[in-house]
Fold this sequence. Notes:
Blueprint: H1 2-15, H2 19-25, H3 28-31, E1 41-42, E2 47-48, E3 61-62, E4 65-66, H4 101-109, H5 119-128, H6 130-134, H7 149-161
Antiparallel strand pairs: 1-2, 3-4
Helix pairs in contact: 5-7
Amino acid sequence: MLLLFLLLPSITQAATLFDPIAEVLKHPRCMNCHTVTDFPRQGDERVPHAQHVVRGENGHGAPTLHCAACHQETNIDHARVPGAPHWHLAPLSMGWEGLDNTRLCQTLIDRSRNGDRDIAALVEHMRADPLVLWGWSPGAGRTLPPLTHPQFMQAVDAWAAAGGPC
Length: 166
């Protein structure tokens, strides 16, 4: 018991490593597709998709209106349509709406909910996945996450090096 009491400050401090990561993950650039709904959201206000798009069976839209029908490999600035390779919603198991930082962290590292990614695979996903990277180049009129991508990765790397504490 005494050991736990002595370790509590370092455990609490380690868990705060996730806080800057959570700030980014809770930003509309991430949350609009990491929904717990059957539809994507749009804008900083996170309103339902204007074209009444639905999740569909695999997160790529309905059979008659796939996400890729409008969302191409890159942003289409003149039409204000965002784009990145393989545009789609995150699976419902990866929905983060309404989660506090601890639950968000726990959901993120839960391999049964995150596409069977270990922490190293999560780091690589956040470092290189085109949909993740799109969040920092979302096109005109869209706000950026609160950290730059290098700052975000510095936080992710520190969190991962500590074992992914929540």
